[in-house]
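Annotated sample (chain length 437).
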Amino acid sequence: MATPDKTLLLMLDDVDISIEARYTGSAAAIAGYVNGRFENWPAVVQKWGNSGKHLVSIDVQNYPAAGAQCLDIENGDAKVSEAPAWFRATKALGVQTGDLRYYPKLYISASGSASLIKTMTAAGIPRSEYMLWSAHYTNTAHICGPGTCGYPQADATQYTNKDNGANLDASQCYAYFFAGKDGVVPTAPPAVNPAEPTLQIGDTGPVVTALQKKLAAIELVGVRGIKADGDFGVQTQTSVRNFQSHQRLEIDGIVGPTTWAAIDAWKNAPTPPPPPVPVKVNAWAAPTVLKQGSMGAAVEVLQRMCRDSGVHGVRGIAVDGNFGEQTLAAVRNFQAYAKLTVDGIAGPATHKALEAISPLADADIVPAPAEPDPEPLPPAPAPAVDPAPPTPPAPAPEAEPAIDLMDLGYDVKFIHVPAGFGLPEGSYLPIFVPKEK
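Output written by the structure step:
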């Protein structure tokens, strides 16, 4: 195996070529997008296809059938949990073609790279099988690693180039980033797994039974629970098509290498292990209620969760560890969005609701405070329900009065329910129709 070529090369993003025009002469590679709001891959190929530069295609929507070399994992795009299945499907495509996609690339923030590596390893995919492209927006050209910035070792790193007043996404890349781990494109890809041949409607036998069992175990509506009878019929074809649709593969009902890889990745996805007894706890677990005037690491975590929430009026706030007016407004807007008490105080209910839509990353784990916050928690607000009437005690009143459709100009009629709808024979259902005038 050849020694990996660690020559440093410059790669630019083609999204804003008016800025990049000053730098394209020195760039060895250009990146573009096959989908998403910045979709520009056909233009990238047309403009740079004969330039001798490396071209890197990026998928932001977890759509392996697009044939992109890189999956963009960030807020609003692909998720860390989707990376193993995308990797297997993309690698299967590379095995068929023998091109650069045989070594899929994964793009993620430098702070999220440890979580991604952990997820891939748990799915049985070693770090050596994919290229890691980290995003670390300092103003210094570098490749992330223990010896440069303390983050996990990457194969390429995106940073911010402010040279001559520019605000440009540029990347430092090892030369092997554009080829295989050994510095060359594989010329003899491995054969397709003979135990998983291409299957389609009309096929029969033990391999079909094995496929059906895998599909039956996938907890997706329209895929799960099919009969494993060894006959690839309409039911199996429908299950396959629904699975392909969910995984954003080509929907043809045929189980080829890409679909097999996605099915195996789903089957092999591990159940997250229970958390160990923590030496550190996340900021939410600290016995602290955060409010205006609070400062410190716990506030930074709160601000990061708000910033990445995607909720209008909440997202995009500054992360400075100071619970000021901007953070107060974000917390109040989120409480209104989540239908919580709008008091601007980030207590357990606010923490829980915020974490549900913006999960904590590894980088958000902070040491627990040595002592609990001496300031007492604010009293819980009284529940907003109508008081119970005096006697008689039953029936208890509803929190809100029921609406009587009969008082709104409707009559009730009963319709007979035919067999096959899961109700006893001879059942009737009430419907409300406008009164005849």
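Annotation: DSSP finds ten helices and twelve strands in the chain.
Annotation: The radius of gyration is 28 Å.
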